[in-house]
Write a structure and sequence with these properties.
By secondary structure, this protein is of the alpha+beta class. It has two domains: 34 residues; 116 residues, AOC barrel-like, CATH 2.40.350. It contains one helix and eight strands. Strands 1-2-3-4-5-6-7-8 form an eight-stranded antiparallel beta barrel.
């Protein structure tokens, strides 16, 4: 009977270690997902083509997260659109909307941006903030600055 008790004790210890390791892995995964940053970024986009009522633009973002940006932008009485941002380690997607303030060749705007998801290390990305910028009517170029928070 001594070996039976010893075997039960060994199984109990093994199961306890397995449960503790699984719980630790879950806590570590949650800690990794709970990363939040306050960001200010500047994006310079240039015109690629038009698809219906939308301008397709592409360019680069500078700031704490640098990378390539692709945007689909619509100008009406306001400006709205969606974007895909490709920093190192994944992608971040979202949308924005702003009110236009017209004055000749350059049109300024201000509004909000919302981050809805991503891939890679940004797979659970969420966030939002302010969206400000200038649109050049002659070249169709956009310069955008965003300020806000990003959780991933």
């Amino acid at each position: 009977m001594g070996w039976f008790r010893l075997a039960k004790a060994a199984i109990f210890v093994a199961l306890t270690v397995a449960v503790l390791c699984a719980q630790s892995a879950g806590v570590l995964a949650a800690a990794r997902m709970a990363h939040t940053e306050r960001l200010t970024m500047t994006v310079h986009l240039h015109y690629l083509t038009a698809k219906g009522a939308y301008l397709l633009e592409e360019g680069s973002a500078s700031g704490p997260l640098a990378g390539t940006v692709k945007a689909r932008v619509r100008f009406t009485a306001d400006i709205s659109g969606s974007f895909e941002f490709y920093p190192r380690g994944g992608s971040i997607s979202g949308y924005g909307a702003a009110r236009l303030h017209e004055s000749g060749t350059y049109v300024s705007f201000g509004g909000n941006v919302t981050i809805t998801g991503g891939t890679g290390r940004y797979a659970h990305a969420r966030g939002g903030g302010g969206l400000y910028g200038v649109y050049n009517r002659r070249t169709l170029a956009l310069t955008i600055q965003t300020t806000g928070s990003l959780s991933y």
